[in-house]
Amino acid sequence: ETPLDSDGAWRRFSPEMDTRWQETRALEAALRRAAAEGEFELHFQPQVALPGARLTGFEALIRWRHPERGLLTPVIFLPVAERLGLMRRIGAWVLREACRAAATWPAELRVAVNISPCQFEDGMLPATVAAALEASGLPPGRLELEVTETVLLASADSALGQLQALRERGVGIAMDDFGTGHSSLTQLRVFPFDRLKIDRSFVKDLPCGSDAMAIVRAVTGLGRSLGMAVTAEGVETPAQLSALLNEGCDAAQGYLFGRPVPEAQVGTAIEALSAGAAA
Ligand code: C2E
Ligand code: MG
Ligand code: MG
Ligand code: MG
C-alpha cells in the first residue's frame, strides 16, 4: 500500500504521495501507542426487536480517543490496524471489554461484537471468546458475533470450523452488511447464521427506492425460509421503519432508536427505549 513497496514505485513517487506516506507512518506509530496505552473505547448502539421496538441489546463499536484529534471512527484506523497485525490484540480487547460491560446490564440484554477476518487467522478465536466470557461471567447466549462475507471467502475452512465451535458453545453468529459482498447466497448454505443484517445502503433508500425495497423483501423472505432472524441496519426515519414492518423484518438498529453511546450512557439509553420513545 505504501508507494515504496512495489517495483518501479520510485518513478511514480510524487510530493502528494510523500505526504500521504508520512501521514500513514504517523498513523501507524500512533496506533501502536494507542494499543499499548489504552486509548480505545467502546460505544454501544441499541438493537431492537420489531414490531414493538423492544430493546434486545447493544452492538459494541470501537472508537479511538486520540489525544490531539479527538474521537476517531473505526473506518479510519481499523484498516491500518489490520495491515499492521494489531487487529488480533485489539479484537481480543474488544471482546473482553464488551463482555465485561454486558455482564453489568439487565440479564435479557445481549451484546453484539464485530469480528475482523484477521481474528480467524491463528485459529484462536474460540479460545479468545471463551476467555472473555469466563472473565466476565457473561453467559454465551448473551454474546453475538458479527462477521462479514469476506470471512468465509478468505479463510473458508478454518473460519468455518471456528464459527461452528463458537456456535456449539452457544454464542450467536450474525452475518453483517448482508448484500454488499460477492457470494451471499452460497455463504448461507455453507454456514447456518443465526441472523442476517441487511446493509444500511439498502435501508437508506426505503421506502421509495424500488430496488432497495425488492432487496429488503428478498432478504427478509430468505431469512424467514432459512430460519435466520433479519435485522435492518441504519434505520433513521419512521418511513423506513414502516416499510420494514410491512416486510415483516424481525429487528432493527439505527439512529431512529439510538446512536452509539459511551458505556456511561447505556443506562439512559435503556430507560429511553423502555419508555417506548421510538415506537
Ligand atoms: P457495522 O458493524 O456495520 O456497524 C454499523 C455502523 O453503522 C456503525 O458505524 C454505526 O455507528 C453506523 N450506524 C448505525 N446506525 C446508523 C444510522 O442510522 N445511520 C448512519 N448513517 N449510520 C449508522 P461505526 O461505528 O463507524 O463502525 C463502522 C464499521 O467499523 C462497523 O460497521 C464495523 O464493520 C467496524 N467496526 C466497528 N467496531 C469494530 C470492532 O470492535 N471490531 C471490528 N473488527 N470492526 C469494528
Ligand atoms: Mg456490525
Ligand atoms: Mg453492518
Ligand atoms: Mg455496515
Automatic annotation (TrEMBL):
<protein>
    <submittedName>
        <fullName>Bifunctional diguanylate cyclase/phosphodiesterase</fullName>
    </submittedName>
</protein>
<feature type="domain" description="EAL">
    <location>
        <begin position="24"/>
        <end position="274"/>
    </location>
</feature>
